[in-house]
Amino acid sequence: MAIQNPPVSQTKSFSTVFLIEMWERFGFYGMQVLMVTYMVKKLGFVDSKANLIWGAAAALIYATPAIGGWVGDKLIGTRRTMMIGAMVLTLGYAMLWIPTNNAYFLYIALGVIIVGNGFFKPNAGNLVRKIYEGDDTKIDSAFTIYYMAVNIGSTISMLLTPWIRDYVGAKYGDAWGWHTAFGVCAIGLVLGLINYSLMYRTLQHIGSPADDERVDVKKLGLVFLAAIGMVFVSAFILQNEGVARVCVYAAGVVILGIFIHLIRSSQQHERAGLVAALVLVAQTIFFFIFYQQMSTSLNLFAQRNVDLSFNLFGMHLFDWIPEQFQSLNAIWIVLLSPVLVLIYNTMGKVGKNPSVAAKFAWGFAAVALGFFIYGVGARFAVNGQVSSWIMVWGYGLYSLGELLVSGLGLAMIARYVPARMGGFMMGAYFVASGISQYLGSVVANFASIPTDIKDPLVSLPIYTALFNKLGFAGVGCTIIAIAMLPLMSKLSASHSDAATNNNPLPPVHSEEFNTPS
What predicted TM-score, i.e. pTM, was given to this entire model? Predict the structure, then answer.
């Protein structure tokens, strides 16, 4: 546990990070919920182009934290890097506030957001770990609350920014509606920065060794030059589909090659754990392909083929804006997480807590059912519009799968990978997740609707064909996961036996999700 002089309670230190993380996620998800439809409706991009641009951006957003964490640990300090990230993100969202329809300006703004996220995300999570370092009794609850910050911020913004877009657009014009909604994301980050400036003293004793040293101007200058370069590199990748595809696939080949090399060159007692980690990483990548549908195909499906009215027993309750359906993911995760925790704890007390591999199988089964529900809903569609309740239950099953698969990703790396490889493997896991986000956008393009199709009766079978295929893909993943259970049990047992005589990597928790493993 960190030494505090003068004493500062862990709760106060944690609250400082919790609040800025909440506002950061408010900004990010408020932007994400609108981005694909902004490119389609405002910039005139076809579905396939918008999907792939966002897929490439999502890949970079997942990959850059591997670099940002190293910058925080080794160069300029965890606290400083987190703050720089928050300020860069504020700039990126503020750029989207400017009422221009210039596509290259959008690419630059997304490049700024990519860099800012890379600086912010890993270092905010690391500060929470450092606050509770050595206090294992509190770290689980701390990350549960921290994860709640993610979902509180994202739920509010995903409901708010589409409403602001429509409200301001109706009064002052469509252009101001879109850009004001993006501006609200910047305002959220400003509020987070103001709050941090009032509470930063609670974190003065927390951070990496670089935080305790004077700022090295030369290192800081190099970081800023690299960041500016990364903005333009990101913008170049986003506007060139071929370049994006080559970068993504090359990164996948490199990571797989390094993984195979690590397995071949590892010591005998380490191989079982590494093979188990590789199997589970591959399954996680397939999950993120499903995950990317939320901001792409499912989002556009809600635009064209969902009845936006919520009715119950013949009584009208309320209407939603199409983009607001994406908030169902966060809402369901908040509702389901404590239920899963209770189930895990109850089963654990009687020695029946399922393995990570078994949870993956259940997760894929839930995802498969979630996608099949959209196909079932289409059978009862009225004039090409499915019930809004179909979206609620589809997202519910999809979110359950997310908790069972994605929520265990980093915990799985920690369990099976030797400590000396832990840093690389964490970075590789995020890069692999980014690759699968891009692949998810490629998959979403199987339901790309031509611009001349406006009739919901025509677009509905195109979407449901994709969702049914994804459902069958989920069934396939479930069968593979079940078939792998005996091997995974054998690998886990071999790894556990070896770990009793070696030093396994201590448990870590994802800052995005926190479910028991």
Answer: 0.86
User: Residue type at 409?
Assistant: G
Report how far residue 218's alpha carbon sits from residue 273's, in angstroms, rounded to the nearest whole number.
41
Measure the CA–CA gap between 180 and 162, rounded to whole angstroms: 10
CB 325 within 8 A of CB 391: yes
> What DSSP string describes 183-223?
HHHHHHHHHHHHHHHHHGGGGTT-S-GGGGSPP-HHHHHHH
CA 400 – CA 370 distance, rounded (Å): 9
Ranges of beta strands (E only) in 314-458 are: 315-319
Q: What is the DSSP letter of 385?
A: B
In angstroms, the CA 517 to CA 500 distance is: 19
- Write down the pLDDT at residue 343: 83
Summarised one tens digit per residue, pLDDT across range 459-486 is: 999 999 999 999 999 999 899 888 877 7
- What residues does 504 pair with on adjacent strands? 418
451 contacts 348 by C-beta, under 8 angstroms: no
Write down the number of H helices and E strands in the chain: 18, 2
The CA R_g of the chain, rounded to the nearest whole Å, is 23
Q: Tell me: the pLDDT tens digits for 399-431?
A: 898 888 765 655 666 566 666 666 566 667 778
Instruction: Name which of 410, 398, 391 is nearest 291 in CA terms.
Output: 398
Residue of 229 and 152 predicted with greater confidence: 229
Of residues 305, 253, 283, the one with CA closest to residue 455? 305
Pick the closest to residue 227 from 68, 83, 104, 27 (CA basis). 68
Q: Percentage of the chain surpassing pLDDT 90?
A: 44
Cis bond upstream, residue 6 (ω within 30): yes
End-to-end Cα, the chain, rounded Å: 24
